[in-house]
Design goal:
Largest sheet: 7 strands, parallel
Low-confidence stretches: 1-6, 390-401
CATH architecture of the largest domain: 3-Layer(aba) Sandwich
Number of helices: 14
Strand order of the largest sheet: 3-4-2-5-6-1-7
CATH superfamily of the largest domain: P-loop containing nucleotide triphosphate hydrolases
Order of helices and strands: HHEHEHEHEHEHHEHEEHEHEHEEHEH
Helix content: 25-40%
Structural class: alpha/beta
CATH topology of the largest domain: Rossmann fold
Radius of gyration: 21 Å
Mean pLDDT: 86
Distance between the termini: 31 Å
Shape: globular
CATH class of the largest domain: Alpha Beta
Length: 401
């Protein structure tokens, strides 16, 4: 974890039982977002937390939620953009709530609705859900939200990017007016400010890093390479760096093609994107965590849903469509204070995309050369660089939770 000087979880308002649990789980030093958010959240105040990905936001809202639910009737609801993130949040909340007899239920698309109904009948104290499937259950009256005491919108900017704003507004109508709302996001676009104004009472804002700040301890490299040379450069880099690799493709078809190519060369590789079933995505992620697969090839749907310690290298085989997704992608390495490396491939005609990334991060991307490849630069273009995409615009097709 990122250390915060001499700070510990003691003195943040956590109960002795939770402090003892944290000791057993070997969480000893809070990250900056945890240190700032936990005391505010424990008091029941509405909160907007802005922090880079990989900074421990789940504990920042999970610990106060469990402590407050231990003293209150009712439930907590955590809304997330992707299935992977829902499962990841559930894993953490379960560790915190299970010792206190609190059950969780995960409500996501691609999983058995019947099993979800069974889980809901067991009266879970915390529900973790994607918006689309949650609305399915609300529409079928298999779930009520009138007893929700605490609402968390996790990765709120990502939910808006994926077009979930109308679903979030519909879900809000099922929730009681009197509740605590916590909103966590890596960036703070105007649409999030509007959601906060409409649904929160005098929220306290806690910002750990400016929007667009890359994760600490990430060394970044950029290779300018012909498109047809990318695959050969990739194999050279995979032989140079022997640890785990998370590789990003712009399209799901590209991800499948890259994964198949790597497997044909003898590399252990899995793929994770929206054309894969939930079972296939879980197997790929669990296999990657366990070391069965050294390389995980993903599209941006996984950019924030993967919480795996010890990823040595993130490779942007394709640059993302949106500069902000670059920040989220490279945040998958260098987690919890560790060192990491992010390598990006750009073709000579992608100067504009690179400049937009640099503008967002307020840093130049260092260009690297490989001795076996012809050194290239960006093609001169008279066209001005297009402005970065406005934050918060739902430029992804809406996905059914």
């Amino acid at each position: 974890m990122n250390q915060t000087g001499g700070n510990t979880f003691y003195g943040l308002g956590l109960s002795p039982n939770l402090l003892a649990l944290l000791e057993r789980l070997k969480f000893r030093i809070p990250t900056p977002i945890q240190f700032k958010a936990i005391p505010v959240a424990i008091e029941g105040k509405d909160l907007i937390g802005v922090a880079q990905t990989g900074t421990g936001k789940t504990l920042a809202f999970g610990l106060p939620m469990i402590q407050r639910l231990a003293a209150l009737p009712g439930r907590g609801l955590v809304l997330v953009p992707t299935r992977e993130l829902a499962l990841q949040v559930d894993e953490t909340i379960n560790k915190l709530g299970h010792p206190f007899g609190m059950r969780t239920a995960v409500i996501i698309g691609g999983a058995s609705q019947h099993l979800q109904m069974q889980a809901l009948r067991k009266n879970p104290r915390v529900i973790i859900a994607t918006p689309g499937r949650l609305l399915d259950h609300l529409g079928q009256s298999t779930l009520r939200l009138d007893d929700v005491q605490i609402l968390v919108l996790d990765e709120a900017d990502r939910m808006l990017d994926m077009g979930f704003a109308p679903q979030i507004e519909r879900i809000m109508k099922y929730l009681p007016r009197e509740k605590q709302t916590m909103l966590f996001s890596a960036t703070l676009p105007e649409k999030i400010v509007k959601i906060a104004a409409a649904n929160m009472k005098l929220p306290i804002s806690v910002e750990i890093a400016p929007s667009g700040t890359a994760a600490e301890h990430v060394k970044q490299e950029l290779y300018i390479i012909k498109k047809e040379e990318k695959a050969r450069l990739l194999t050279k880099l995979l032989d140079q760096y022997r640890g785990t690799v998370l590789l990003f493709s712009r399209t799901k078809r590209g991800a499948g093609r890259i994964a198949r190519g790597l497997r044909s060369l003898g590399y252990s590789a899995a793929e994770i994107h929206s054309d894969r079933s939930l079972a296939q995505r879980r197997e790929a992620l669990e296999g990657f965590k366990a070391g069965k697969y050294r390389i995980l090839v993903a599209t941006d749907i996984a950019a924030r849903g993967i919480d795996v310690k010890g990823i040595e290298v993130v490779i942007n085989y394709d640059l993302p469509d949106d500069a902000e997704n670059y920040v989220h992608r490279i945040g998958r390495t260098a987690r919890a204070g560790h060192e990491g490396l992010a390598i990006s491939f750009a073709t000579p005609d992608q100067q504009n995309e690179v400049r937009n990334i640099e503008k967002l991060m307020r840093l130049p991307l260092p260009v690297s050369r490989h001795p076996e490849f012809q050194p290239l630069g960006f093609e001169l273009s008279s066209r001005p660089a297009p402005p970065p995409r406005p934050r918060g615009r739902p430029h992804y097709r809406r996905r059914h939770g």
